[in-house]
Amino acid sequence: MNRTKRILIYVFLLIFITFSSHFIYNFVTLYFESQRLKDRLNGLSEVMHNLNAIIISSESIDTTAFLQGKESFPSLVQKNVKGHPLYSWRFTEFLTLPVPLPHKLPWTADEYGWVRETAPLPFCYGGNTKTVVFAVGGPDTAFDQINPTPAKSLPQNLILFADVYESNTHWMQPGDFSIENIPEKVNVPGGFGSSLYRGFNVVFVDGQIWHLQDDVPLNLLIRFCTITDAKKTSRDLLEPYCDFKQQLNRKEFLWLDWDTWALPNNELENE
After folding, report:
1. What is the pLDDT of residue 271?
2. 106 exposed, middle or buried (CB, 10 Å; 0-12, 13-18, 19+)?
3. For the chain, what are the domain ranges?
4. CA separation for the pair 30, 221 (Å, rounded)
5. Coil, helix or strand at residue 9
6. Which segments cross the bilayer (predicted)?
7. Residue 222 above 90 pLDDT?
8. What is the pLDDT of residues 3-49, one digit of tens each?
């Protein structure tokens, strides 16, 4: 075999190995990305169901009045009798579990030491104690405590929770999106986005989880974060940027009159 043929064979093999490696890398990347996304969808489902538990166990909410449409969602931050912040709604959800822990201490208290080392799946990923989910708070949102709106009166298009990119916030620590200063770009620290997969999830009042692409216009998405704009904005506007949707069982959420709520015209996909 002459030298030219050997070189051609080597070049061919190099190209083949390069393309094969690229294909395998992409396949493995997509596989693990899909697994992380599946885990996060399960986590967000737990977040929504645990919100029920907060409503039932909250000392500040009359459950009967809530079911009658007279009560708003609880505060995102648990406070003591003096109004000082103690811990986040995420830890409030955790405390609805049968764990022998006090409920009236700041999240940095020694009594919570072992809990601070954990990374519960609904709020964290991969053993990292920084939260990957924020609620949307601030004026005219579902969690507005200054001018509260009864939970049963909230528009179904309103976003409650979303993936957050590099929150730099311990899951027990108070901290969420504020409608007044949400970053204007996706995938910047403290903004909408995810470092676990392409795109990010948002969770609506009606129990739908939408996985949106990173190129969704933020000025459009923000319209689904306030009550006023969500009432007059069609969710169909987000369709071009939505990869898939998942509908949680609306019968299981205390704030939904599920028997009178019609599904949107678009077909829901569960993946």
Report:
1. 37
2. middle
3. 3-260
4. 26
5. helix
6. 7-32
7. yes
8. 666 666 666 666 756 656 655 545 456 566 888 999 999 999 999 99
Q: What is the pTM for the complete model shown? A: 0.85
Is the CB of residue 109 less than 8 Å from the CB of residue 103? no
Confidence check: pLDDT of 101 > 60: yes
Nearest CA to 169 out of 139, 137, 191, 201 is that of 191
Cβ neighbours of residue 233 under 8 Å, at least 6 residues apart? 157, 223, 224
Q: How many CA atoms lie within 13 A of 81 on its CB side?
A: 0
Residue 33 burial by Cβ neighbours in a 10 Å radius (0-12, 13-18, 19+): middle
By CB neighbour count within 10 A (0-12 exposed, 13-18 middle, 19+ buried), where does 19 fall?
A: exposed
Burial of residue 211, with CB atoms counted within 10 A of its CB: 0-12 exposed, 13-18 middle, 19 or more buried: buried
In the chain, which ranges are E strands? 77-79, 85-88, 133-137, 159-165, 177-178, 191-192, 200-204, 208-212, 242-247
pLDDT computed for residue 257 by the predictor:
79
Q: Which two tokens stand for residue 35?
A: 């697994």
